[in-house]
Amino acid sequence: MRMHFYVGLLVGPFILVAALSGIVYVLTPSVESWLYRDALTVSTQDAPQPLARQIETAQWVIGQDTLPAAVRPAPDAHSTTRVIFADPALGPSEHRAIFIDPATLDVKGDMTVYGTSGILPFRTALDQFHRGLLLGDIGRLYSELAASWLWIIALLGLVLWLARRKTLKSPGPRMAARRLHATVGVFALVGLLFFSATGLTWSQWAGGNIGELRQAWGWGTPSVSTVLPALGDAMSHDSHAHHDMHADHGVSSAPEAGDFVSTEGFDQALAAARRSGLLADQIQLEPPASEGRAWRVSEIDRRWPTQVDQVALNPSDMHILEQTDFSTFPLAAKLTRWGIDLHMGVLFGLPNQLVLALFAAALVFLIVWGYRMWWQRVKSTTVNQAQTMAALFTMLSLPAQLGLLAILALLGFALPVLGGSLIIIAIIDALRWAASRKPRSV
Length: 442
Description:
Elements: H1 2-26, H2 29-35, H3 37-40, H4 51-62, E1 70-72, E2 81-85, E3 94-100, E4 107-114, H5 121-132, H6 136-163, H7 173-187, H8 189-202, H9 206-216, H10 264-276, E5 283-286, E6 295-299, E7 310-313, E8 320-324, H11 331-344, H12 350-380, H13 389-394, H14 398-414, H15 416-437
Antiparallel strand pairs: 1-2, 2-3, 3-4, 5-6, 6-7, 7-8
Helix pairs in contact: 1-5, 1-6, 1-12, 5-6, 6-7, 6-8, 7-12, 8-11, 14-15
């Protein structure tokens, strides 16, 4: 009860911001489609021009013959083609995208896109606020703090509900407030645990530990290697020579056009990928990033059923060097992919987004109602030793104390932001306990 109270009181504001910004973010795909409809859609439905010509148009727009970092052909007759360029002036995972009408070669838009999902500026700003309050890596500590504690708060609330179900049935306005708080918390429990688990996979410190654990247990998401076999030994110490397990962070850079890959290669790579079985409407083509590298063609449709197969193609003759098939992924890799897409609200489209918003709204209610309950208690009670964790800790046997400290140390090591905040909470609690033990002057 003390831990549930302390964490809710001190970490609640961070969780509240994450929940509110998450509601806004998850409900914005339709807004983004409307806001950028001129760049995303076309009115003509004539036969598309070759990708090479579409790319040349985009190169004319940027004033360079640089090869695109990636190209996303129009998924249907009503959509534009995205020609995506690396730009050193942009931030991590950001690229400049030129939107081309595939039939008329008209330029429909020119804007920055973010990450593999290719979200546009409006959602990018919301995403960065949700993840880090627009403060970069320092700001990401807030979201990691929220995700690190959310699952603990939720499980502690469940324990309290199980232990006090009979007490909660007592009459009175104060008990009615607790009963409402507990009931909403129990019904929202699955969603809260889901938010915490998937949120931690994106976090800066705990996310790194989770990534290492996934690799050690063979739970990594398979991805094709783009290193040509002839150079595999020579590049064995190159960190990029292995499968890229962080492909969600964006597309690669690309060479100058004409160095060893031409714009016509995109049409050839697309045809080869279709022959290999990559039939999704949404597809991304990445040219070799340097000599000794292969083409990578990826399905990027993360709705249900998920289509994220990949092939690596030899640039000399476009034969398949390596291929991944989502249907053969380990279950853990599939669950990771689905969990991320569920968290982003893309797996099942609008129903997914509405359910996420409902759980997030429940979380907002729990936090606000919890502060209301705390304020009512402050006005009606006084501090004593039993209200601090330190006082309760001294009542435990020595083996129980050592066991509890060991568990907390392991949690702090696995989730560093949780560990640091736990130390702060313990210091505050110890000071309150010490103050409550001092004799009061008459």
